[in-house]
Amino acid sequence: MTELIPLIATNSSPSSRARRPEWLKVRAPGGPNYHDVFRLVREQNLHTVCEEAHCPNIGECWNHRTATFLLLGNICTRGCRYCAIGKGKPEPIDEHEPERVAESVAYLKLKFAVLTSVNRDDVPDGGASIFARTIELIRQKVPDCKVEVLIPDFDGNWAALETVLAAEPDVLNHNIETVPRLFRRFRPRARFERSIELLARARAARPYLVTKSGMMVGAGETNEEVYQVIDRLRDVDVNVLTIGQYLSPGASYWPVHRYVTPAEFAEFRRYALERGFRHVESGPLVRSSYNAHLHVNARQH
């Protein structure tokens, strides 16, 4: 097995390197389906979070002909310290992007599509209208395709949130990412309580909707803090939870403080299910969209 992305380990300092544990090694991407998705993304001038965020599961997911489409370009207006996506001044919104994404979903014959985006604090609605339009076009072209949206916080613009909700996604995901103690340094412009409020508002506005959140561990938090975040997410009735190992994109990013063991991930999952989550993905290589097609069934009873 070969490593897909390098890690900067920080058991002693951000510049030190430590051997990646065996449970964090993945096969290099390849195969006919992988190359077909790769070609499609290039031909349609699309972006995927799989590539932009250096996801370790890209080979597995693309070989299953699934990809998480990254809307609104590939330049983010925020400076989160954990994220490999480019940061700076983005290009103007591409109004034709929803059509190309919907055509790609149809080409891939997807039964489940995941849409996410960079933050676009440079436009009034944060790009919410592009999310909504993409959902609408997917439904027109592939009526039986379920859609998950992994949305930003829209800088607290709750009208923008309603724009997305009005398009009736099947799953509304917003990642909490880390614990309150680290939040302001990990995600400088975001706010922990704002993210909690977004998830609470989504539940209140659409009681039947599957809501979802995720976090990364190994970034300096304690296990007790992880349990506390699990509790907060259940307090606002989130249905689905994903927990994965934080992997630093490079030396200039937030450092990896430790590699959380598979046994600890199993304990996080046990606790979350005990607290009432309907579906939990918890493991070293878990990312927000991993096995996303299974999450749509975690509906309210």
Write a compact overview of the structure shown.
The chain has 11 helices and 9 strands.
3D architecture notes:
By secondary structure, the chain is an alpha/beta fold. The protein has one domain: TIM Barrel, CATH 3.20.20. The protein contains eleven helices and nine strands. It has helices spanning 32-43, 49-52, 58-63, 97-108, 128-141, 158-166, 180-186, 192-205, 223-235, 262-275, 292-295, and strands spanning 68-71, 75-76, 86-87, 112-117, 146-150, 171-173, 210-217, 240-245, 279-282. The strands form two sheets. Strands 1-4-5-6-7-8-9 form a seven-stranded parallel beta sheet. A two-stranded parallel sheet has the order 2-3. Helix 5 links the parallel strand 4 and strand 5. Helix 4 runs parallel beside helix 5, helix 5 runs parallel beside helix 6 and helix 9 packs parallel to helix 10.
Query: Can you identify the CATH class?
Result: Alpha Beta
- Major beta sheet, strand line-up: 1-4-5-6-7-8-9
Helix segment count?
11
CATH architecture: Alpha-Beta Barrel
Spatial extent as radius of gyration: 18 Å
Low-confidence stretches: 1-17
Compressed to H and E, one letter per element, the order equals HHHEEEHEHEHEHHEHEHEH
Range of strand content: 5-15%
Mean pLDDT: 85
Taking the sheet with the most strands, its summary is: 7 strands, parallel
**CATH superfamily (homologous) name:** Aldolase class I
Helicity, as a percent range: 25-40%
Tell me the structural class: alpha/beta
CATH domain topology: TIM Barrel
Q: How many strand units?
A: 9
Task: Please indicate the count of domains.
Answer: 1
Shape: globular
Ends distance: 42 Å
